[in-house]
Specification:
Oligomer: single chain
Shape: elongated
CATH topology of the largest domain: Rossmann fold
Strand order of the largest sheet: 3-2-1-4-5-12
CATH class of the largest domain: Alpha Beta
Distance between the termini: 19 Å
Order of helices and strands: EHEHEHEHEEHEHEHEHEHEEH
Number of domains: 2
CATH architecture of the largest domain: 3-Layer(aba) Sandwich
Low-confidence stretches: none
Strand content: 15-25%
Mean pLDDT: 90
Length: 263
């Protein structure tokens, strides 16, 4: 087996695109994803795919065993714990870390129907005041928290169509009329029709950027007159010795091209 000189963390579409850049450049790498679904999203890449969640200590051991020379954190913008674990492991080993930052559109979004918040609790508090049928386009990971804060409301959850997620939704008490198992990202036209179909009165979403179809989620809200609550990205710093921050895929491509040339 080839030695994995670069270890990428992330089951996002951005992470897959970074892997494809490395394939073109002929760079050796390994991709870590949390779930089998993440592995499915990455099918077709040349690098090894490792499935399973790891804490900082597990990452240190795995990176050492693989002889990793560089780490790229291309995890989801809201995966704060994962990013912190990756940073801790990289610094403990003295391995350079590239932190990929997905570009944000939040500063360009200003409208009376758009409510920006920083926590799930705040999002639910605002949503509870604005309507009874509340559509979540935030995934399934923290669904239990939303249901706790939205007691007495009709919660509609748009989630990934996997058996694990559907079982979890049912275990939380959601009925078939509340679960919409679909894989995005979706067009603005699709979202507009979907919001109307499920008769949503409020939409809660995250600042997922272009890769996550953020504009396509909020534009239909504005055209339909629906309140849209946006949970802004966590504001945590990524600074320290050996940490390089890269903003967007174009900047990442330039960086990898330089490193491939230096091999």
């Amino acid at each position: 087996m080839k030695r994995s000189l670069i270890h990428i963390f992330g089951g996002t579409s951005d992470a897959r695109q970074i892997c494809e850049m490395m394939d073109i450049a002929g760079m050796d790498y390994c991709l870590s994803v949390a779930t089998p679904t993440g592995a499915q999203q990455a099918e077709g890449i040349r690098g090894e795919i490792v499935i399973g969640r790891m804490e900082s200590e597990g990452m240190v051991k795995d990176l050492q065993q693989r002889g990793t020379g560089m780490v790229i954190d291309a995890s989801h913008p809201y995966a704060e714990r994962l990013s912190q674990n990756v940073a801790n492991a990289s610094q403990k080993l003295g391995v350079p870390l590239i932190r990929y930052i997905r570009p944000s559109d939040i500063d360009a979004v200003e409208h009376a129907l758009i409510h920006k918040v920083t926590t799930i609790e705040q999002a639910c508090e605002v949503a509870s005041r604005l309507g009874s049928r509340i559509l979540l386009t935030t995934g399934s990971k923290q669904l239990a928290d939303y249901l706790t804060y939205l007691k007495g409301k009709t919660v509609l959850a748009r989630v990934l169509p996997t058996a694990e997620v559907l079982v979890m939704c049912e275990s939380l008490g959601l009925s078939v009329d509340q679960i919409f198992a679909l894989k995005g990202p979706f067009s603005a036209d699709f979202n507009r029709a979907f919001y109307q179909f499920c008769q949503a009165e409020v939409v809660i979403t995250k600042e997922s950027g272009e890769q996550g179809g953020f504009k396509e989620k909020i534009e239909p809200c504005l055209s339909l007159g629906l309140p849209c609550i946006v949970i802004c990205r966590p504001d945590y710093p990524f600074v320290g010795e050996g940490i390089t921050q890269v903003n967007g895929l174009e900047e990442m491509e330039h960086l990898l091209a330089r490193k491939a040339w230096q091999k």
